[in-house]
Amino acid sequence: IPEMQQWDNIIYNLTENEEEVVYTFRLINQDLYSRLTVNSDGVLLRFTWSDQEWNMNWFSPKDECDVYEKCGPYAYCDMNTSPVCNCMKGFEPRNRQEWASGDVSSRCQRKTRLNCTGDGFSQLTKMKSPATKAVIVYNKMSLKDCKEECIKNCSCTAFANKDIRNDGSGCVIWTGELGDIRNSTAT
Q1: CA–CA distance, 40 with 31 (Å, rounded to integer)
Q2: Among the ranges given (24-28, 75-79, 121-125), the one the predictor scored with the smallest mean pLDDT
Q3: Which residues form the Apple domain (predicted)?
């Protein structure tokens, strides 16, 4: 959540082991109280106790691209385009008329049949990584080795650095449909 980086009163923690991946945070000032809730519409809200009342100071989703899997597999959401859903390079809408009207239920389809040898990858920049439903994670692998590992696996659909800080490290390989992708608003 990019705007969380601006909150200077919170310590973040990522726990990663063979059994779980858990993201947690806690307030630095123990005199402050904060809570997260999910309302009946599925909106995540953060409240802080101040002046004898709970004040909402953050919520998500912020726009329609924040809605989980808004555009379906092999598509990305971009609030700067109309319609907001766009098929990835090498894919096209199954029903162009429905897609143009904003109905993306027909989904994107591959333009040419996948050929496990000779197919390549298109680089997507400034995008949020796809949902991690079916992934393989390598903690100590270069991006070059990651690409080679992905090419060897015919069910590999994408690869990326596991951690993009400090020129990147580790490797994530997706082995299923790519979904829940949007242009990144983080700077």
Answers
A1: 29
A2: 24-28
A3: 116-187
